[in-house]
Amino acid sequence: MKHILIVLVSLLSMGMAAQENGIQFEHDKSFSELKAMAKAQDKLLFMDCYTTWCGPCKQLAANIFTLAQIGDFYNTNFINCKFDMEKGEGIDIGKQYEVRAYPTLLFINGDGEMVHKKIGGGTAQDILELGKNANDKENNFMAVSKRIKNNTYSSSDIKNFLNFNKYGSNNDEVLDLFFKGLNANTYYTVETWEVIEAHLTDLESDFGKFLIQNREKYNSGIGKQKVDAKLQQLFAQGIHKAKGDESAIAKYKAIDPALAESTMLMMDINNAYGMLRRTPISEELINNFATLSEKYASSDLADAAMMNRIAWDIYEHFKNGKMSDQLILKSGLKLSTKMVELAPENPAFLDTHAHLLALDKDLKGAIDVQTKAIALLKKKGEPTENYEKALQEMKDALYKIQ
After folding, report:
1. pTM of the full predicted structure?
2. Whose CA is closest to 79, among 106, 50, 97?
3. Which of 45, 54, 229, 369 is catalytic?
4. Strand arrangement of the beta sheet that strand 78-84 belongs to
5. What is the pLDDT of residues 229-259, one digit of tens each?
6. Distance CA 62, CA 187 (A)
7. CA–CA separation, 28 vs 213, rounded Å?
């Protein structure tokens, strides 16, 4: 019994030490109390705005916020907190700061002013840079916004504003400023494409019409796959807004019939998977999702990022015991196989594929894919800690069955 107690105490201590390595979030404090703390300590609040169903939120919480280097920086520089945007104070906070996508990472001063923000997850390096930018009083979101408002902005200010304020209510106006500042030498650069890819949301805008009219030039300079992926996103937004209006949908079919068809298939598979997550699972729903997955995975116009979102969500639902049907798993594997074929240099996509292979008992294949993902991360100079941990778990599982 004594030895058992020693082991249990040791394991508990190890768990507490692991938690202390990452960001230390303040719990059980109101937003008013947190602002008062920030003011008293002359620090910004770092706020993780999440939901319980958000996959990227969970990845940040499990794989990034727990890292020692992230914890060291954020615990030193910020008062850290997190709010569920669908519960309690989180609902009003979301309205106040126009939180429209998850995760949204906010930096707020003691007076409640939003100083900096980011929408979406990222690598450990991304999150470190985010914190450094938040504390840069000359170039954070608040500073850039003031220069744009006072008409003293630079072109880099416009790009930074758009990057900081993704999905913001006034982004179209600022994007128009960016478009009007372009010329023959800058229309087709990589830098301009990055702005189009990240922020263009309306094909009916001047910038959207310009993209359609000059599609071949962008195909040539940027790559057809990237251009098609962006157009598919814009098609999906437009078709969704059309709400079944065939005359509106016909506009997209006229631009590119094959891309419009692929877009509607993408929307169908998203809806089909959503039904699996939100309703009691039936054989009919499973078969519908499987049929659409096979069809979409055979398309040359498939969206790798969208497939990754579904594939990782399937992994998490199997891991948590919320899904168990093998046809769903096989469908997820078809999607993840296609996405790594389309983006073989993306470590996150490889990681997702490896996890699904492991679930399907193909541990040797999982180890091979995860090893490639780690090599790519090392090549980019990014942390591999969590990927290495997953790889070891795969190796341990293989050892047990050999």
Report:
1. 0.67
2. 106
3. 54
4. 78-84, 44-50, 104-108, 114-119
5. 899 999 998 888 888 788 888 989 999 999 9
6. 40
7. 54
Q: Which residues are bridge partners to 397 per DSSP?
A: none
- 401 — phi, psi (to 5°)? -100, -5
Of 57, 64, 162, 391, which one is the catalytic site residue? 57
Nearest to 374, CA basis, from 350, 344, 338, 340: 350
> Is 49 tagged catalytic?
no
The CA distance from 326 to 343, in Å, is 25
- For the chain, the straight-line distance linking the first and the last C-alpha, in angstroms and rounded, comes to 33
81 is catalytic: no
For 48, the enclosing helix (H) or strand (E) is strand 44-50
Q: What is the chain's length?
A: 402
Q: Could you tell me where the DSSP H helices lie in 22-82?
A: 31-41, 55-59, 68-77
Type of residue at 268: D
Structure tokens at 85: 């945007």
Nearest to residue 134, comparing CAs of 143, 145, 123, 124? 143
Q: Which two tokens stand for residue 83?
A: 């709010």
SS3 151: coil
Q: What does the pLDDT look like over 362-395, one tens digit per residue? A: 999 999 999 999 999 999 988 898 999 999 999 9
